[in-house]
Amino acid sequence: MTSLLLAALPPDSSGRTAPPPAAAAPAARSYPLDSPAGLELINVKAEAATYRGRRAVRLLDQSAKPGSDHGYAMAVLPRTEFADGTLELDVAGLARTGAPETARGFIGIAFRVRDHGAAFECFYIRPLNGRAGDQLRRNHSTQYIASPGYPWERLRRDSPGVYESYVDLEPGAWTHLKVTVAGTTARLYVHGADQPALIVDDLKLGATRGQLALWVGDDTDGYFSGLTVR
Question: What domains appear along the chain, each with residue ranges and CATH number?
Answer without folding.
Answer: 24-229 (2.60.120.560)
